[in-house]
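Q: what does this look like with iron/sulfur cluster bound?
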Amino acid sequence: MAGKTLYDKLWDAHVVRDNGDGTALLYIDRQLVHEVTSPQAFEGLRLADRPLWRVAANLAVVDHNVPTTGRADGIADPISALQVETLNRNCREYGVTQFGLLDRRQGIVHIIGPEQGATQPGMTVVCGDSHTSTHGALGALAFGIGTSEVEHALATQTVVQARSKRMLIRVDGQAGPGVTAKDIMLAIIGRIGTAGGTGYAVEYGGEAIRALPMSGRMTICNMSIEAGARCGMVGVDDTTIEYLRGRPYAPSEEMWDQAEAYWRTLVSDEDAEFDRVVTLDAAEIKPQVSWGTSPEMVVAVDGVVPDPADEPDETRRAGMQRALDYMGLEPGTPIREIRPEKVFIGSCTNSRIEDLRAAARVLRGKRIAKGIREAMVVPGSGLVKWQAEQEGLDQVFKEAGFEWRDAGCSMCLGMNPDRLSPGERCASTSNRNFEGRQGAGGRTHLVSPEMAAAVAVAGHFVDVRELEH
Amino acid sequence: MEPLTRVEGLVAPLDRSNVDTDAIIPKQFLKSIHRTGFGPNLFDEWRYLDEGQPGQDCSDRPLNTDFVLNQPRYQGATILLARENFGCGSSREHAPWALADFGFRVLIAPSFADIFYNNCSKNGILPVALPVETVQSLFEATWAHEGYRLSVDLPGQVVMTPEGERHAFEIDPHRKHMLVEGLDEIGLTLEHADEIRAYEQQRRQVTPWLFTDVEPV
Ligand code: SF4
């Protein structure tokens, strides 16, 4: 019999019962809750008079709606304020631990889970948010769910799931300098497409993935959903274990050795079989820039905007044309000639301390270019912000002309006041370049933090590898 | 949830691939704390010429008359025809809530994003995946014949055209059962509460640290 993949191990360990119809009842170890996808779930529980199954398995935070400036004055938008207040009330009423707006630990739900050690290897982690895949970087089975499932998980500590197929994405070799986890992931999505991972649980492996710190692995797993996969994961190794040591919710000292021994088993067996294997050579990956309105519409920074005329498939061709019209781009335009007006460094993809350090390295001693109307850094959590300030990174950003904000989702989706105006072009370290994602009519180019910093300085896209720093 | 067995209705063709949930229901409407009332803002950025705000009366907003759902011939449609990877992106259940609130009960496309597919079936919407060529032929028939209707039989797992063609589709038995009976999944799961408790007990022995409570540090 062939060995087991990491996914199989995690799945098998969490099956409460096989429903006998292709689905299983899967036990959930940790549920993360935020203000946007939970109000209707709590409302449902209240209507049916159901309690939470295991209150202390849940951790809540406000992130999507929150302003990134002037927090002490509260939230100006009354509808946002009501949603945040609704989460406060639900958490109080049901006894769920919550990091409120003014808590130093507040931040984007997918940043704070690992940061607090609240998401760990071997866990099943759910959240009413598709980027829950992020937590798979720790060797967990983590996936986004809808609000009905949030309610189901709150009430039963389980979700009903069908087993996924298994895909291995192996990135061999070493990535060159200036080529980040974000570039690797955008290259993967460019290769397999935004539906390439549909129906699969993806494991990332290979030398280039192993070489990444946890922050980079989280960036990769985070964008699994942009490749169509509900979950992405990386097997446990020393990097994983060292990351967890000393985190507030990590296992206590008495249980640490036992936990560590278990975690070490959370890798795919040598002889495990996958339903699909995709391999990439890291050495061939260059810094990436998205040109269209889907994360698969991506090219290397030294490339040009593609021509729909070269696409044989009619539906795809029409999609490309629509994207070009929306983005205000002509086929054949060199990526380097595209000039964004805004730069956003943040989101659950790229707002960890390592991301800020990388961007600051490029910016040190420089100023943003004239054509850049606004450049903004939004740390992933209050603790990331604090850490950056200890290291003086805030000064580097401010001296370069960036705004230094409070933690939250911010311009990744623009539910708070941070958003693009129609026609505005933005270099963004976030994960989605959909039409209107960062504000109605806004045009998003997805890049790494280094590339975002580089474009801020140059005023147009540049290959960060050519900048002196 | 309202049971869904057979839907016979007018078809609206949305000829775009990779339609994401941000497009189905833009973020500003996610601020609602209710499950209903999203219908007027379905595809908001495509349907109207101005930028929609939550809580606004949509009846006198300027319509984008080019958008397919605004064309008189598709008014009252209950079946939406779409292209591949429909519902990709954000996990927001507001997307199926908006589709249902607008009046759609069946979606037909070559493929759907996983989370969205799941969310639909929990809200009385049936997502039907059919081969690309079949979907293409349905698009052509819908464009060609004003008032084109389809009949979808969930128990029989078949889509029937007025021309008498029958297109069989797959759906897992669990989802089908939930939809046909209009069941409350939480209630069903809680019938197995003992098994959940037994599982927890055994896990507490093997991996006790997983049961350390998340409490304010
Ligand atoms: S940062 Fe963006 S992608 Fe991440 S959880 Fe927030 S809105 Fe979603």
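The CA atoms of residues 50 and 338 of chain A lie 54 Å apart. Residues A 63-64, 108, 110, 129, 131, 347-348, 409, 412-413, 430-431 surround iron/sulfur cluster (CB under 6 Å).
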